[in-house]
Design goal:
The chain is 77% helix and 0% strand. It contains five helices and no strands. The longest helix is centred in the middle third of the chain and has 80 residues, at 63-142. It is rod-shaped, with a radius of gyration of 43 Å. The relative contact order is 0.07.
Length: 167
């Protein structure tokens, strides 16, 4: 059907759009539909469309026409979105709630496992400290020489025996 025209670039380049703009792509499809209808109308009149007629058609695509293509495309995309949401609302809500529940469970599990680990570690440390204190008190009273020997082994600076050492 003829020579190159710049309608695609004009539609996709408007209002800081990019190459993935859905409304711009749909607007271009509407433009192409209009162009096909124009060509069929000319051909139904009995003569095939000439390259010159196509070039003239391309030149006559105004900004107002592009605005109309975009308006119609926006309405079509919006209607599609609304229909899709209406048809899939329950599934979308269930998926979102399921994901939220899963995220919340992971969050609770992470905080619970930290809390459980913290308190278990704290309790075992406290128990070990109590056992050490009790053994130290019992050992100091009943076995002062043994305690003195152990302290001397750990710290060579310990030289004197405890005052309450049994003799």
């Amino acid at each position: 059907m003829g020579s190159y025209n710049d309608v695609y670039e004009r539609l996709m380049g408007r209002a800081e759009k990019n190459k993935t703009d859905l409304v711009g792509m749909v607007a271009y499809a509407i433009y192409k539909q209009t162009k096909v209808e124009y060509c069929r109308t000319i051909e139904e009149e009995g003569a095939p469309i000439t390259p010159e007629e196509l070039q003239t058609y391309h030149k006559r695509v105004t900004d107002t026409m592009l605005d109309a293509f975009e308006t119609k495309a926006s309405a079509a995309v919006l209607q599609y979105r609304e229909d899709y949401l209406k048809e899939n609302r329950d599934r979308i809500v269930q998926d979102a709630l399921g994901q939220m529940k899963e995220d919340l469970q992971k969050s609770i599990q992470a905080s619970t496992s930290f809390g459980q680990g913290f308190w278990a570690g704290f309790a075992s440390s406290l128990a070990a400290a109590v056992v050490i204190v009790v053994l130290t008190l019992v050992g100091t009273y009943n076995y002062p020489d043994l305690v003195h020997a152990m302290l001397k082994a750990v710290s060579p600076s310990v030289t004197e025996k405890p005052n309450n050492a049994k003799q």
